[in-house]
Design brief:
The chain contains 15 helices and 13 strands. It has 427 residues and is an alpha/beta fold. It folds into two domains: 236 residues, Rossmann fold (3-Layer(aba) Sandwich), CATH 3.40.50; 139 residues, Glycogen Phosphorylase B (Rossmann fold). The protein has a seven-stranded parallel sheet. Strands 10-9-8-11-12-13 form a six-stranded parallel sheet. Keywords: Glycosyltransferase, Transferase.
Length: 427
């Protein structure tokens, strides 16, 4: 319509607008260090999707993990693999009493966590992170291992604590969150909802005990590790109380609503999306052919059903033999004595895909957090056999929400209790 001279003001204006648009669309990727030292698949998988998405969105991510993704397409993701530490984890798991009480579990964990910290921080690739000239923009550390916050002190960068399930009062207090044991009993207590007098007394005493235990046992042990490997002036407690944010794998819409400050973020439900057609062909065909329905039995990744006592295994066999359904059982051994014909043993399966199968009738679970979340997503009724840690609290939550029944081991699994626990029976 009209001619524009090459050196006109209008031409310069176009160049200016183009520059503004280009600058406005520029993104800056961060160099992120993620540290999840716990050698447990359930702890690692809770954040695997986070590392993947951060790397896909242009950030450079380095992780210390016992379950690396090993995805060659994630070119921005560097993984320091400490999977070899599972040999120690398995040794501890094999000697762990399935009836361990809440009064002893933290004592066992601290011994194991100190050992694992020592092993990992002395590992050459992690030593390189301590002593090389790499600069990270932010450090995320699993809350069980606050001594690893020494990395943030070295790099002089913001630090975030992350927890793969509900965290305890020590970290809430560090963030300024008003947590009281009567309103929010510790995650390791078997209490949920309105407490009776005995439960209130027990929750309060355990809260006091845990406060003392953290101050006089856990923090001093962590302090010794920090001094051994990091040349920093700050103490573990100073590092924890100076944390910029706390991420908790908790959903207040499902679990307990808590009054927390703006630097505490609930990120419950952070799971890997279900991948279509990801069931192994043999399992897919077995479930597809279960036209009358099937039961899925799994005690998660930290509890091996092969280690259940002989009487409990016999009870499970007898009950499963009587049901008109097929049974898919996550069992870690090759053979199960007395196994009925309707049971198929597997050592692992993508659980979300199994629970999403249209033929499923029931999920028998230990009530781990990830299993509970996946059950809610898939809308599958449950029978819960809680073993230890947070599972009793989760089990009571699931029962109160109306999608689970609880079967206790007292000390053995009772056949009649298990038979009548399925919502609606087996008909």
């Amino acid at each position: 319509f009209f001619a524009v001279k090459p050196n006109s003001t209008f031409n310069m204006f176009l160049k200016y607008i183009s520059l503004v648009i280009l600058l406005g669309s520029t993104s800056y990727g961060a160099n992120i260090l993620g540290i999840i030292p716990t050698t447990s698949y359930s702890h690692q998988i809770a954040y695997a999707h986070l590392w993947k998405e951060l790397s896909l969105r242009g950030h450079k991510v380095t992780t210390i993990t016992s379950n690396p993704l090993k995805d060659p397409t994630l070119t921005n993701l560097t993984e320091i693999d400490v999977n070899w530490l599972y040999k120690y984890y398995d040794a501890v798991s094999n000697t762990l009493d399935m009836s361990i009480s809440m009064w002893h579990i933290y004592d066992i964990w601290i011994q194991f966590m100190v050992f694992m910290s020592d092993e990992q921080l002395s590992y050459a690739p992690i030593q390189n992170l301590i002593h090389n000239k790499t600069n990270f923009d932010i450090v995320l550390v699993e809350s069980f291992f606050p001594e690893f916050l020494g990395f943030a002190e070295i790099y002089k960068c913001p630090k975030i604590l992350i927890s793969s399930f509900q965290t305890n009062a020590y970290y809430h207090h560090a963030m300024g969150n008003p947590i009281h044991p009567l309103l929010h009993p510790d995650i390791m207590t078997p209490f949920y909802g309105a407490l009776n007098f005995k439960e209130r007394v027990t929750a309060t005493l355990f809260g006091w005990y845990l406060s003392y235990f953290f101050s006089h046992k856990i923090i001093p042990e962590k302090e010794a590790i920090l001094r051994k490997y990091f040349n920093v002036e700050a103490t573990v407690e100073e590092l924890v109380y100076d944390v910029d944010m706390l991420f908790i794998n908790e959903n207040p819409a499902v679990q307990e609503a808590k009054a927390v400050g703006p630097t505490t973020i609930n990120i419950g439900g952070l799971r890997q999306p279900i991948s279509p057609n990801s069931l192994p062909q043999e399992i897919q065909e077995y479930l597809d052919n279960a036209t009358e329905g099937f039961i899925y039995f799994s005690l998660g990744t930290n509890i091996r059903s092969k280690d259940l006592d002989e009487q409990t295994l016999r009870t499970l066999n007898e009950v499963f033999e009587e049901v008109p359904y097929k049974v898919l059982w996550k069992f870690e051994a090759d053979e199960l004595p007395g196994k009925p014909e309707n049971i198929k043993l597997i050592k692992w399966a993508p659980q979300q895909n199994v629970l999403s199968h249209p033929n499923i009738k029931l999920f028998i679970t230990q009530a781990g957090l990830q299993s509970m979340e996946e059950t809610i997503t898939s809308e599958v009724p449950c029978v819960v056999i809680p073993i230890y840690a947070d599972q009793e609290k989760n089990a009571k939550l699931m029962k109160r929400k109306g999608f689970a029944e609880i079967v206790e081991r007292t000390p053995f699994l009772e056949k009649e209790e298990l038979k009548k626990s399925h919502p609606g029976g087996y008909k």
